[in-house]
């Protein structure tokens, strides 16, 4: 995949590679150099375990991160995930806002032990607190008096008291718990469910926009408004207005946790394709500033129901390669008004398992596990029948075809010409990806890199920092290599390599796809899409 980056971005990218992509020898010392918001993770935030509010925001804790919605301005803020120290992978059970300390207090559980976490809202960093020998914390209640400077924890095994600046939680008897604390310790979701005036509306709060009903898990009231925010077990957030009795669904994040492909369309919006491993599969369209997202699920939309392998915007049309077919969205400038079409074997594809796309003057080329097709809209012209095509790239008027039987070059033009192909023998044999980086053609067999310049191949070149190579990406200034150990980037001018590693810099591998823009690097991982800010 070849990215678009103007020449003025070299200074920005060189700066981030110096400050963010540390040399391999310095990886152990690198973590302290991250700044706030340098890294942002998008993932599946649908399962809400606990909810809290302050004067203008609602916070929703999920196993993959903390959602933050500014209900006064109607905008989503950047989520807090692993890069901030959030305990991703644990089940959140209780959440409270402490106005005195300007902190959030979160309780999580691994099924046997619970842990208390503190988020300093002033700098967005999480600190680990005490571990508790209890299966779950049901409620966290700040004391209402300055004399009693503590939090009371209502757990499945009794009451505990944790000082605001304490590091240990001490068991206390119910008689030692202030009466107002005991009253506030009853989860709001239980209190409202017992309210006869609320019972008529409670069943409606579980329904999402597709009329699926989700269990209600937690709730918190706005401090000065009339809104009641309710978390759902898979259906994200819903706001219930206690004055007008109106219901609004609020969703953020991706359709699935794992991401298989990333692209940016002409409007600047980002598209994320599922890796096919979750319960829900499809696409998500996110505004460039991450203030809003639109999920397209295969259960309700004509979008991929298996892993997405590549997303290719062309004008106002979006082409999507997936393991269950070729998809087209046209026009795709408005996700709410767009039309989706699917093409499979009955439309001329050798098989429905599409592995790559490339656009040339001769039309759209579609790679599949059983051959290559030129897609003109009315017909499909097959090539390499029966062969597994892994990836495509374009160099001038030549199509580069990475296959299980090596790399092939096909001259293309407006009329395709005679469609002749020529092998470009690579010492590695099977080629899983190919790009054009500067004046080189760079191919990989998954283990090593091979470079071709002026018709001569060099290699193999092992990139230990990346590990097993999954994807290549090129900009005018850098070659990017993604793998199961992280990402490595080479400056094409100096030939110097620098890297981001799993799990210190990237939460989980392999890195399946990547996108480089003028301001960010996006990495597709099984844990979500990680955005890294390019800074000077």
Main traits of this protein?
536 residues, mainly beta, 4-stranded antiparallel sheet, 44 strands, 6% helix, disordered N terminus
Quick summary of this structure?
By secondary structure, this protein is mainly beta. It contains 5 helices and 44 strands.
What can you see in these coordinates?
By secondary structure, the chain is mainly β. Helices cover 6% and strands 45% of the residues. The chain contains 5 helices and 44 strands. The strands form 11 sheets. Strands 1-44-43-42 form a 4-stranded antiparallel β-sheet, with no helix packed on it. It has a 4-stranded antiparallel β-sheet with strand order 2-3-4-5, with no helix packed on it. A 4-stranded antiparallel β-sheet has the order 6-7-8-9, with no helix packed on it. The chain is elongated, with a radius of gyration of 26 Å.
Strand adjacency order, main sheet? 1-44-43-42
Please tally the β strands and state the result. Answer: 44
Strand % is: over 45%
Largest sheet: 4 strands, antiparallel
Tally of individual helices: 5
Q: What secondary-structure arrangement, pairings included, does this model have?
A:
Layout: H1 9-19, E1 39-42, E2 50-53, E3 57-62, E4 65-70, E5 75-76, E6 91-98, E7 103-109, E8 114-120, E9 125-132, E10 137-142, E11 150-155, E12 158-163, E13 169-172, H2 179-185, H3 188-193, H4 196-199, H5 202-205, E14 216-221, E15 227-232, E16 236-241, E17 247-250, E18 259-264, E19 270-274, E20 282-286, E21 293-297, E22 308-314, E23 317-322, E24 325-329, E25 340-343, E26 354-360, E27 363-368, E28 371-375, E29 380-383, E30 389-395, E31 398-403, E32 406-411, E33 422-423, E34 433-437, E35 440-444, E36 449-453, E37 456-461, E38 469-474, E39 478-483, E40 486-491, E41 497-501, E42 513-516, E43 520-525, E44 528-533
Antiparallel strand pairs: 1-44, 2-3, 3-4, 4-5, 6-7, 7-8, 8-9, 10-11, 11-12, 12-13, 14-15, 15-16, 16-17, 18-19, 19-20, 20-21, 22-23, 23-24, 24-25, 26-27, 27-28, 28-29, 30-31, 31-32, 32-33, 34-35, 35-36, 36-37, 38-39, 39-40, 40-41, 42-43, 43-44
């Amino acid at each position: 995949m070849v990215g678009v980056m103007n020449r003025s971005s070299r200074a920005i990218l060189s700066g981030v590679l110096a400050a963010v992509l540390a040399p391999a020898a310095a990886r152990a010392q690198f973590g302290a150099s991250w700044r706030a918001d340098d890294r942002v993770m998008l993932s599946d935030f649908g399962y809400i375990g606990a909810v809290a509010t302050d004067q203008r925001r609602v916070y929703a804790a999920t196993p993959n991160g903390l959602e933050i919605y500014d209900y006064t301005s109607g905008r989503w803020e950047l989520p807090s995930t692993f890069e901030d120290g959030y305990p991703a992978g644990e089940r959140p059970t209780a959440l409270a806002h402490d106005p005195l300390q300007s902190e959030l207090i979160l309780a999580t559980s691994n099924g046997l032990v619970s842990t208390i976490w503190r988020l300093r809202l002033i700098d967005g960093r999480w600190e680990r607190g005490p571990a508790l020998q209890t299966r779950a914390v049901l409620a966290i209640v700040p004391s209402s008096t300055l004399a009693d400077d503590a939090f009371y924890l209502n757990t499945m095994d009794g009451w505990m008291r944790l000082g605001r600046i304490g590091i240990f939680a001490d068991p206390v008897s119910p008689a030692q718990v202030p009466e107002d604390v005991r009253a506030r310790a009853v989860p709001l979701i239980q209190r409202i469910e017992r309210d006869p005036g609320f019972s008529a509306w409670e069943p409606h709060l579980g329904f999402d926009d597709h009329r699926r009903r989700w269990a209600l898990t937690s709730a918190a009231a706005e401090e000065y408004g009339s809104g009641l925010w309710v978390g759902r077990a898979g259906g994200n957030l819903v706001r219930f207005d206690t004055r007008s009795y109106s219901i609004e669904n609020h969703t953020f994040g991706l359709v699935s946790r794992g991401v298989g492909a990333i692209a940016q369309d002409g409007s600047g919006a980002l598209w994320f394709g599922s890796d096919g491993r979750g319960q829900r599969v499809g696409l998500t369209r996110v505004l460039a500033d991450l203030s809003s997202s639109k999920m397209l699920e295969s259960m309700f939309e004509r979008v991929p129901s298996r892993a997405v392998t590549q997303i290719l915007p062309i004008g106002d049309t979006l082409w999507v390669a997936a393991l269950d077919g070729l998809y087209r969205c046209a026009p795709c400038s408005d996700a709410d008004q767009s039309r989706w079409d699917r093409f499979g074997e009955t439309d001329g594809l050798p098989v429905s398992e599409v592995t790559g796309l490339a656009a040339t003057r001769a039309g759209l080329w579609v790679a599949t596990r059983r051959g290559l097709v030129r897609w003109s809209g009315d017909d499909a012209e097959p090539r390499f029948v029966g062969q597994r095509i892994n990836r495509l790239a374009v160099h001038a008027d030549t199509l580069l075809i990475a296959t299980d039987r090596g790399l092939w070059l096909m001259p293309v033009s407006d009329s395709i010409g005679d469609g002749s192909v020529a092998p470009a023998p690579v010492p590695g044999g099977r080629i899983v990806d190919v790009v054009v980086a500067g004046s080189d053609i760079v191919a990989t067999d998954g283990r090593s890199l091979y470079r071709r310049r002026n018709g001569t191949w060099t290699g193999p070149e092992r990139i230990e920092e990346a590990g097993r190579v999954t994807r290549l990406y090129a900009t005018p200034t850098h070659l990017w290599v993604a793998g199961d150990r992280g990402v490595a980037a080479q400056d094409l001018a100096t030939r110097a390599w620098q890297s981001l590693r799993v799990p210190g810099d990237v939460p989980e591998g392999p890195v399946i796809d990547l996108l480089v823009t003028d301001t960010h690097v996006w990495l597709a991982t099984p844990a979500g899409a990680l955005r890294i800010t390019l800074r000077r």
